[in-house]
Amino acid sequence: MNILIRTHPKTVVSNCPGYVRVFSSSIKHEFAKNTQEFPVRIGQPTGHTHPHLLKTSEVVVGITKDELKLRRKKLLEDIAKSTAKFNTNPRDHIVIVPSAGKKYISDKIPYVFRQHSDFRYLSGCLEPDSVLLLHLDSSGRDKSVLFLRPKDRHAEMWDGTRTGPELAVDIFGVDESHELKQFSEYLDKFSKESQSTVLWADHAALQEQPEVFKKVSEFSGKIAKPFEPVTSLIHRLRVIKSSAEVELMRRTCEIASQAINRTISESREGDSEHHLFARVDYNCRMDNADFLAYPPVVASGNNATTIHYIENSQVIEAGKLVLMDAGCEYGGYTSDITRTWPISGTFTGPQKILYDVILTLQKDLLATLLNSGGTCLDDLFDTMCVKLGMYLQEVGLVNKSLSGVSLARAAYSFCPHHVSHYLGMDVHDTPTVPRTSTLQPGMVFTVEPGIYISENRRDVPVEFRGLGIRIEDDCVITPSATIEILTSQCAKEIKQLENLVKL
Known about the structure:
Layout: E1 4-7, H1 25-31, E2 36-39, E3 58-60, E4 63-64, H2 65-84, E5 92-98, E6 104-106, E7 109-110, H3 117-123, E8 131-136, E9 142-148, H4 153-159, H5 165-172, E10 176-179, H6 183-188, E11 197-201, H7 203-206, H8 210-220, E12 225-229, H9 231-238, H10 243-266, H11 273-285, E13 291-292, E14 297-300, E15 321-326, E16 328-330, E17 333-334, E18 337-342, H12 349-372, H13 377-394, H14 404-412, E19 444-447, E20 450-453, E21 467-470, E22 473-477, E23 483-485, H15 494-502
Parallel strand pairs: 5-11, 9-10, 11-12
Antiparallel strand pairs: 1-2, 3-4, 5-8, 6-7, 8-9, 13-16, 14-15, 15-18, 16-17, 19-22, 20-21, 22-23
Helix pairs in contact: 10-11, 10-15, 12-13, 13-14
């Protein structure tokens, strides 16, 4: 992406207070002759301003303009296919995908902005208060239109540079770009075709921008097919990663894997869980992660039996296990890893027994994926419940008379969560895609069996109480239908973990 502006090296701008000089297009063109080039700063990093992060051909890290165009094209093709079998008359389709809005901790204090994943996926734009409109007319012609905040010298002094609609066509590869305030007027142009128009949008996403939501709601009342759900169609695209996306997944998983390894090696008896939170966050950011992908679980001892424990405030006592569930975001893509290790450097007998159960189970599940072909995540969960029950029978934690559904139910009481979810731009990615879907090349997902035995549980021997163990890796189905473990660099064998702690 080669976005350049030209300015004369000897230009003098008036220093009168409040004076802003505005050039007409013709004057700008003349002014640009025989001048010096330098990169423009826009509302997000580019290959010129951030060459350590992006190539000049990329709109966002790892993703080119051509890939963004292809995503938009595929979405409109899927919309056309999904309606062709139900409608004999050609229709106009309008897709509206809003950006995220800014959110505030308190008065004028913003949270770190994170773009809505569907909007980022289709536009590549990282600015708040924006809208992408896609139009497919009844003859099959399509158009993409991006609405953005205008350039504003005062606002940009406070909140940073904006791209503005002037450069958006070149940067994001859309057909048109306008100021956000023109969205209502633009949408009204379709009212005359109201009886043949289908509106595709998502209520929840639109509500982040109240004025946009109000206008879309008014428009939807005038047309034949208001608010067809578009999210599930976008998620069907997002769940299959391109080769560029898989590379980003490899990188975010590599960063988190190495960060967790370093955190394990730095952990010591007497540390606070909060200290380990800080270390894994630091280690990820020092390897160019944007931030942690979610509030991490750093749970020692009995805290690890609370699956979503995020208080992270306890001092880690000698002899306890530490369960860390952490991942990072890099280039808009997330990792999600869980490791469990002994803070004193050696697993005790009961800890080792249960850790062996979960490690063996996870390896069994990965082997199932390699050998079964057309499996799905729900099948993997069913397999986990049965095998976990069998392994717990072997170590004396489940009655050996149980089998079938009764055995699976008993195992579920020790691990009451699914063993897998899709992974990508979001941690729990593409939630509208059923976990009954057959796994295909390009799908990324977790494999995360665990066991949680509260210190208050009375139906197990006392030596196993207060232990929580989970092992989680991130996997992708390759083009040859094999499994690549993206987090394989993160230690999980007993000796590896013990050696890391003792470093």
